[in-house]
Amino acid sequence: MNVDRIFLDTNILVYAHDITAGSKHEKAKEIVLDLWENRNGVISTQILQEFYVVVTRKLPEPLANWRAREIIENLLFWDVVVNDEKSILEAIDISERYKLSFWDALMVQSALKGDVKILFSEDLNSGQVIEGIKIENPSAGFEFFISSTRASTFSINSSLSPKNSGFIAIKKSPFVHLSSGVAVPLTFVPI
User: Where do the structural domains in the chain lie, given as residue ranges?
Assistant: First the structure.
């Protein structure tokens, strides 16, 4: 069977190991296990670096350094794209062409280099195609994030669908997406 290779953004890996993330933890764990079983997961050195920082310093219940290292050692069995000097220059071009942050563009460039067709991320627009790679958000339509690179400037990136119009968002717990600044996950509750 020919299974598409899938590139994972840091946030999916983090949720898979963040026991405080509720339904996101369960969904991300399912995704990661499926990628293990099918041997079609792709990540990059950037993703591994961000993962280590987030799970050891930014989670409500951080992992011990040795545990994060152990997880990364296991992830090295996946296809890991190494970011080099050419990757950086290509990411700059992608950033300018698609108006992405440099870090998101570097992730897209790594996905290109890894020859994937699908990139799972919550930081990019679900359904968008960038350089032939389809962006999929495993939780699209269920949440949105208030994100900022400075505490005083916020913008809302919404993936709300009309079916969610009877819900309001409330703060659940702080979470940091290194590739796009500070993000505060919100959970929908019925009004």
Answer: 6-136, 145-190
Question: Would you say residue 152 has pLDDT above 80?
Answer: no
What pTM was estimated for this model as a whole? 0.71
User: What's the per-residue H, E or C state across the chain?
Assistant: CCCCCEEECHHHHHHHHCCCCCHHHHHHHHHHHHHHHHCCEEEEHHHHHHHHHHHHHCCCCCCCHHHHHHHHHHHCCCEEECCCHHHHHHHHHHHHHHCCCHHHHHHHHHHHHCCCCEEECCCCCCCCEECCEEEECCCCCCCCEEEEEECCEEEEECCCCHHHCCEEEEECCCEEECCCEEEEEEEEEEC
| Average pLDDT over all residues of the chain | 77
CATH of the domain spanning 6-136: 3.40.50.1010
More confident residue, 178 or 79: 79
